[in-house]
Write a structure and sequence with these properties.
Layout lengths: L49 E10 L10 H7 L8 E3 L5 E5 L6 H21 L3 E3 L17 H10 L10 E7 L3 H11 L3 H7 L5 E2 L2 E2 L5 H6 L14 H14 L12 E3 L5 E8 L4 H23 L9 H14 L4 E3 L7 E3 H11 L1 H6 L3 H14 L2 H12 L2 H15 L4
Antiparallel strand pairs: 1-3, 1-4, 1-5, 2-3, 5-9, 6-7, 8-9, 10-11
Helix pairs in contact: 1-2, 2-8, 2-14, 4-8, 5-9, 8-12, 13-14
Organism: Plantactinospora sonchi
InterPro entries: GCL_type2/YbdK_subfam, GCS2, Gln_synth/guanido_kin_cat_dom, YbdK
EC number: 6.3.2.2
């Protein structure tokens, strides 16, 4: 089970489930868990493991407001899923995490079981499960989960906290060791704004359209340590930066390192944590496959002696802002072409073309090709929300559409 290095200030670890859910159609080793010290490349066929964490909002079905119901929902979760479900920072949030594995079909099966089981548990508790970046409907702010660490966070950082909850998706991909992992982080920097745009799923907040595709990104950046990953010279440099941020008081500990990509503190993985939680399984699987292909491509470049591109921090920050604002439906910063603006879809297609060898090597190309075409046809989560709202100018339609997608059907329509 992946560590819950989550979008919230929490750093709790997901407990081991009582038994691994068997995932039909998986390659050998798909359901095996990584433990500290495992070599994620030692799988017999040199493929990379991938695992996913997703955070969800609990809402009142009558009002659409964020509902402080996590304890009631946890009480309804089936025993076989309990080890893969946990609390988040606010009582209106809940999180799932998959075992790391090699096969996208197995990952989809695992996520489908978890989403459906959690949606059933939420309904049994009188609320609904919604895969959305933050609460679309205005209402009282749910309290924070009763936890001494969270109390310390609130005391230190004060008014950055209040919101209905910010719900993200985190992708873990295995790497051989921390030194190589740091080089991978450098290689990933220019590509992450496009994945940020592709996951945009929170245009509405407090009853109105914010003008952003990902308002969660704006809320999340109130935490002082949220930022694009800096250019890193070595693993020692990475550790020194972490120590300096803790010494300044910006972070309480390493668990508060909220860079858009980082090394996991608990597992031999890089963790990519830029995106809103995706509304459908199709979206999640697409992003997981692209992230794995990015890491694989980075490892290939590193082995060949090809260095990453040291994109200036200000340009990288601008690219992430643009991604949060426009999603894929607008413009994006062309970091590979000097920083000009281009249609976001044009740049994403170019990136996927570059990732083709890695996608082929993992057997993911056909799935990614189909899901990418589907995403372009139906739009990002933000675009789908706006389309649902346009029917009657009613956020109830937005939530109804999100609830249907959240259940794991994979249907964008």
């Amino acid at each position: 089970m992946l560590a819950a290095d989550a979008e919230s200030p929490g750093t709790g670890e997901l407990a081991e489930p009582p038994g691994t859910v068997e995932l039909p159609g998986a390659r050998s080793g798909t359901a095996d868990r990584l433990t500290a010290g495992d070599d994620p490349l030692s799988t017999g066929n040199d493929l990379l493991t991938v695992g996913v964490e997703e955070e969800f909002l609990l809402v009142d079905p009558a009002t659409g407001e964020a509902a402080p119901a996590v304890e009631a929902v946890l009480a309804e979760v089936p025993d076989e899923l309990r080890g893969q479900v946990q609390r988040e920072f606010q009582t209106s949030q809940i999180e799932i995490g998959t075992p790391p594995g090699l096969d996208l079909a197995a990952l989809r099966h695992s996520l489908g079981l978890l989403r459906t089981g959690l949606a059933d548990a939420a309904e049994a508790a009188g609320v609904r499960l919604v895969a959305v970046g933050t609460g679309p409907v205005a209402g009282p702010m749910p309290p924070v989960v009763d936890n001494p660490r969270f109390d310390q966070m609130i005391e230190r950082y004060g008014l950055v906290v209040p919101s209905p909850g910010v719900n993200g998706m985190h992708i873990h991909v295995g790497v051989p060791d921390p030194e190589i992992g740091v080089q991978v982080l450098n290689h990933l920097r220019p590509a992450l704004p496009l994945l940020h745009a592709a996951t945009a799923n929170s245009p509405f907040y407090a009853g109105r359209d914010t003008g952003y595709a990902s308002w969660r990104s704006v809320l999340w950046e109130r935490w002082p340590s949220v930022a694009p990953t800096p250019w890193l010279e070595s693993h020692a440099h990475y550790e020194r930066l972490v120590e300096e941020l803790i010494d300044t008081g910006m972070m309480l500990d390493e668990g508060m390192l909220y860079w858009y990509a980082r090394l996991s503190a608990n597992y031999p993985t890089v963790e990519i944590r830029i995106g809103d939680v995706c509304p459908s399984l199709d979206d999640t699987i697409l992003i997981a496959a692209l992230v794995r292909a990015l890491v694989d491509t980075a490892l290939t470049d590193i082995a060949a002696g090809r260095a990453g591109v040291p994109v200036p921090h200000h340009l990288l920050a601008a690219a992430h802002w643009r991604a949060a604002h426009d999603g894929l439906e607008g413009l994006a910063v062309d970091l590979a072409g000097g920083g000009g603006l281009r249609p976001a879809w044009q740049l994403l297609r170019r990136l996927v073309s570059r990732l083709r060898p890695a996608l082929e090597r993992h057997g993911d190309l056909a799935v990614v090709t189909a899901l990418l075409s589907r995403l372009q046809a139906h739009g990002t989560g933000a675009a789908r929300q706006r389309a649902a709202y346009a029917r009657r100018q009613d956020l109830a339609d937005v939530l109804e559409d999100l609830m249907r997608q959240t259940r794991g059907t994979g249907d964008h329509g």
